[in-house]
Restriction endonuclease (Diaphorobacter ruginosibacter), 193 residues
Amino acid sequence: MAQNSLFAILLRSPWWISLAVVLVIVAVCGAFLPREIAPFAALGALPIFVIGCMAAWRQFRAPSSSRLQTMHARIAAMSWKEFAAALETAWQREGQSVQRMPGGNTAADLQLAKGGTTSLVSARRWKAANHGVEPLRELQEAVARQKADHGVYVVLQGSLTENARAFAKEHGLLLLEGDALCAMLLKSQGDRS
């Protein structure tokens, strides 16, 4: 699904917006179309209704902001060993095979495999205050060298420079940062409150 398509935007928006759009479509169809055609035209709003239900399901299952903040603080207090173990557990619970990379490898820390797809994960700089292009470039080179399918760069705090974000997008590197990282670790613990 295209990132800026109507459905993608509605999936990211609060669920009630989709339902409001459905009501507007149904009202317009009822007001401006002949009675014989209006119900059939209003059925065109069904995909938007489904997207609204999907958004509601996701949003009701998502952890609360207070849980995310608590997890953020817990992750920030972790040592590298604890954080790596938490990532391993989270990805294993998602069905990934997780292998730690050899100690001399500075570009990638973990290798994930599932269904014939391999991903390299760079997570050691998760607490860094600033993230530039260089660690992403190293990760991209490791992905190419090992013929992996994806590269994942993990960031808890700090900021990625605009150049780093552009580099990640251009080279298809996935960024796992902030709330998404916290939600993944909460989910692996079975904690969604």
